[in-house]
Design a protein that fits this description.
- The complex is a heterodimer of chains A (about 180) and B (about 60).
- Chain A is built from 5 helices and 2 strands, in the order H-H-H-H-E-E-H.
- With about 180 residues, chain A is mostly helical.
- By secondary structure, chain B is an all-alpha fold.
- Helix content of chain B is about 65%, strand content about 0%.
- Classes of the chains: A mainly alpha (about 180), B mainly alpha (about 60).
Chain lengths: ~180, ~60
């Protein structure tokens, strides 16, 4: 019975998450479209970004396999290491695209996008903080599943920082 | 190789990179990359840029020997 409740909860969570993503995309894109539009150079750069992120995740997972004997002394649960691979891949792809000017689409409302990303980042960091305060974040010296929220929050912070640095250097290049 | 002819034509029309980008429907970074020679645009984009600046393909994109 517990497993069926858990499966149903997971399914509802995923469905709500997808609906939220669609709503956010329609809100962030100027023409109310769900799909973000990119020009020809941006599409090419994004393809390169996916390729680099693919190899980055492969290397990450290979390193994690090599570190398998050390899982007992690593400060995170083994399953968390594989969840981190997802964030690692996203950071590589997004940062590459930001740096090459291919992350913000033609129909993206940038101020709205920044606001939404900041809210998501702070929301995740808040959940991680609450987990830490209640003693769920780290148990027996190992980061638990709630660490995903911490990593997600930090990921958005890193992406925001890269975006800010790129914006400043981009101005210098244009001048 | 930098495309100085494109840069000069854009400046001649008193357009910023963003203005030209808006006219042809691409990002400002794409115009910047073309001017710096970091990106080779497709023929479709070349034609759009030429039309926006009132120039021919030869005038903007043909490299002299």
């Amino acid at each position: 019975m517990y497993n069926s409740y858990r499966t149903a909860g997971l399914a509802v969570g995923i469905a709500v998450g997808l609906i939220l993503v669609v709503i956010i995309l329609r809100f962030v894109n100027r023409n109310k479209k769900v799909a973000t539009e990119y020009d020809e150079r941006q599409k090419q750069i994004r393809g390169e970004g996916y390729k680099i992120a693919f190899y980055a995740v492969l290397i990450y997972e290979a390193v994690m396999c090599a570190l398998a004997p050390l899982y007992d002394i690593l400060p995170v649960e083994p399953y968390m290491l594989h969840a981190l691979a997802i964030f690692f891949g996203v950071i590589v792809q997004v940062c590459y695209c930001i740096w090459k000017g291919a992350y913000v689409g033609q129909n993206t409302n940038l101020p709205r996008f920044i606001v939404i990303m900041t809210i998501i980042s702070l929301f995740n960091l808040f959940i991680a903080f609450m987990a830490w305060r209640n003693g769920y974040l780290i148990i027996d010296g190992k980061m638990q599943a709630q660490g995903v929220n911490l990593v997600c929050g930090l990921m958005f912070a890193v992406i925001g920082l890269v975006g800010l640095i790129r914006k400043l250097t981009d101005r210098e290049e244009e001048a | 190789m930098k495309n100085l002819k494109l840069k000069a034509a854009r400046a001649g029309k008193d357009l910023s990179q963003q203005d030209l980008a808006d006219l042809v429907g691409v990002s400002r970074q794409t115009i910047s990359a073309i001017e710096k020679g970091d990106y080779n645009p497709t023929i479709n984009l070349c034609v759009k840029i030429c039309k926006a600046l009132g120039k021919t393909l030869d005038e903007l994109f043909w490299e002299e020997e």
